[in-house]
Write a structure and sequence with these properties.
Elements lengths: L22 E7 L7 E2 H8 L5 H9 L3 E3 L2 E2 L5 E2 L4 E6 L17 E4 L3 E6 L16 H8 L14 E2 L8 E7 L2 H12 L4 E9 L6 E5 L2 E4 L2 E7 L11 E9 L3 E8 L6 H8 L22 H13 L5 E9 L6 E5 L4 H14 L1
Parallel strand pairs: 10-17
Antiparallel strand pairs: 1-6, 2-5, 3-4, 3-6, 7-8, 8-10, 9-10, 11-16, 11-17, 12-15, 13-14, 15-16, 17-18
Helix pairs in contact: 1-2
Length: about 350
């Protein structure tokens, strides 16, 4: 539910309640003479190989929209209603190819899988990234599991993180698990904590950032904090706490209250502290310190050590969809961010 592979150019206008992109898979327009009919029956009549039970599950997950708003399966379709089936991933143009891509599996049982995604790995195939993605890796991992079809939108990744962000993601292995976990993300009962290296030293050292996030009207590849009265902005709250300060940068902990696209990157930039080496939001320049030749070379070495935005999804907590027990996972900082911090510690000392 949260988060998207940010490097793609596909810019859907549909979003879920958290402002994350939704992708249209099917669209039907009711005839002018359409009699009142439950939407699940309406779709069964128009879709091949779609059972009523499967459509009802899609409605429960908020994947069926009528005139742009999610509806339950008992909604009665009226003349000229526009009925859409949407998913949190693009529609795969071709069957997903299983590829032997190593996975760092943190936890797995019959219902869920938690994986630690490396930076640089795109989550979903599509738009120039049809192979080499996390979904291709999952197809290989589940290749001998007859109950897991990687092309089935009722299964798979429940949320997402950006291509160049590392860290934890949860995968649902059953339709019921994906519905349950999706509701947890929707209701904001999951626990998500990130580590980020940002330019400067935030003042105060800990705080709460609130600002509606939406597409930047000046750059469609960026998100931005919009005025409170802008109807396209989605409510977003980030809590941050400075963990360690260096000469010109700081390591901060960010806890998401909401899960908007690029939320941490946008919010930290909004208060004047862009993420280190975040090319999309201007963090790939010398933003603090006197740009002497020696310092420039030091920064260039830092950019080489961690050639992406310094952001890691460190912890993930949720309630197990079957047992109901609280699950909590931690992924240590990856090697590139560790090397980056070591460089700044040596400079500061």
């Amino acid at each position: 539910m949260t988060e998207d592979t940010e490097e793609t150019v596909d810019l859907p206008e549909l979003t879920d309640a958290d402002g994350n992109p939704l992708y249209e898979h099917f669209r039907f327009v009711a005839d002018r003479g359409q009699e009142l009919l439950r939407v699940d029956k309406f779709l069964v009549l128009r879709m091949q190989n779609a059972s009523r039970n499967r459509i009802q599950q899609a409605a429960d997950a908020g994947c069926i929209l009528v005139n742009g708003a999610p509806v339950k399966s008992n909604y009665r379709v009226k003349p000229l209603d526009v009925v859409q089936i949407v998913m949190d991933r693009p529609r795969y143009e071709n069957e997903v190819i299983a590829e032997d891509i190593p996975l760092d599996i943190v936890y797995e049982d019959d219902t869920v899988l938690v994986v630690n995604k490396p930076a640089g790995l795109v989550v979903h195939p599509g738009h120039g990234n049809y192979t080499g993605t996390l979904v291709n890796a999952l197809a290989w991992h589940f290749r001998n599991n007859p109950n897991y079809d990687v092309n089935d939108p009722r299964l798979g990744l429940v949320h997402r993180i950006d291509k160049d962000t590392s860290g934890l993601l949860v995968v649902a292995k059953t339709p019921e698990a994906k519905t349950d976990l999706g509701k947890q993300f929707f209701n904001k009962t999951t626990k998500r904590e990130y580590r980020a290296l940002v330019w400067g030293q935030p003042a105060p050292a800990a705080g709460r950032i609130e600002g509606n996030i939406g597409r930047n009207p000046k750059d469609r590849l960026q998100m931005t904090v919009l005025p409170p009265d802008d109807p396209t902005g989605k409510h977003a709250v980030t809590h941050y706490e400075t963990i360690e300060t260096f000469t010109h940068v700081s390591l901060v902990k960010c806890v998401l209250e909401t899960g908007r696209t690029h939320q941490i990157r946008v919010h930290m930039g909004h208060i004047g502290h862009p993420l280190f080496n975040d090319a999309r939001y201007g963090g790939d320049k010398v933003l603090r310190g006197v740009p002497s030749g020696t310092y420039k070379r030091f920064i260039a070495g830092c950019f080489s050590a961690c050639p992406r935005q310094a952001l890691h999804a460190m912890t993930l907590g949720f309630r197990h969809p079957v047992s109901g027990s609280e699950m909590f996972f931690t992924a240590p900082l990856p090697a590139d961010m560790t090397a980056l911090l070591d460089r700044w510690r040596r400079l500061s000392n």
